[in-house]
Amino acid sequence: MSYEPIENYGIIGDCHGCALISSKGNIDWLTFERFDSDPLLWSILDDTQGSSIGLDFPPDFFWKRSYRKDTNILETTASNHETQIKITDYMPVGRKFKSTTHDYTKLKALHALVRKIQVVGKSVRVKITKRFNSWPDSQSTLVFLEGKERLSFREESSFDLFLVEGSCHYLVISQDNIPQLSIKQLQDLEKITNSFWSEWISYSQYTGNLKGIIDRSALTLKMLIHAPTGAIMAAPTTSLPENFGGQRNWDYRYSWIRDSVFTLYALGYLGYSG
Description:
Blueprint: E1 10-13, E2 18-21, E3 27-30, E4 52-56, E5 62-67, E6 74-79, E7 84-90, E8 112-119, E9 124-131, E10 141-146, E11 149-152, E12 158-163, E13 168-174, H1 183-201, H2 211-223, H3 257-269
Antiparallel strand pairs: 1-2, 2-3, 4-9, 5-6, 6-7, 7-8, 8-13, 9-12, 10-11, 10-13
């Protein structure tokens, strides 16, 4: 077995569920609607039987990533001496209709994950891989959009993708039978999601030397608050043992009183009151 250390993963979410993305862009954990729901992707628990969606690049590519400033949108870059591929991952989130300006709790999530793949340099051929023993839900959808073309990715285990210089591609994963989204709608969802996170963090009153670190921590804490109930997750994962073969592999996707108090104290210190 070969597992990537948990600290190497980036997390994205929509205040309902979340996804964990490896340092090379593999989506190895994904839940929709509830943090404690059965995962759609779960190879962090079993790298041979667990489900995942990955990217297979030539071996000479180097990887780096960061969060877009003041958001929970993850941007990963794969590059070599000839080209650069930018991968943007986010879970769309937005306010419900008629919500007030400062309402960051009544949310309307699509229960979807959007991956945007942009080519900055020369064209390159890559492979998108999907590993499922069986598709978990009859309503689950996995759709690849390339320009105006739409490819169902339900049965194939992988497909080659020729990334042309200057092109942009989308991969949309959903557990609900949501309406088909156009490229324009996906662009709008990204703007809405970007604005949601950047507006929320702008209300932080912390101005010290550690602002970048504090803001990143606050955004993560906010992402782990389940919007429909207000429950604060202790952690987004489950069943990860402290050591291989050990028994301490509990489910931390609960709102533990101690952890919730610490989170509320931290957010209150930053000036958040509701």
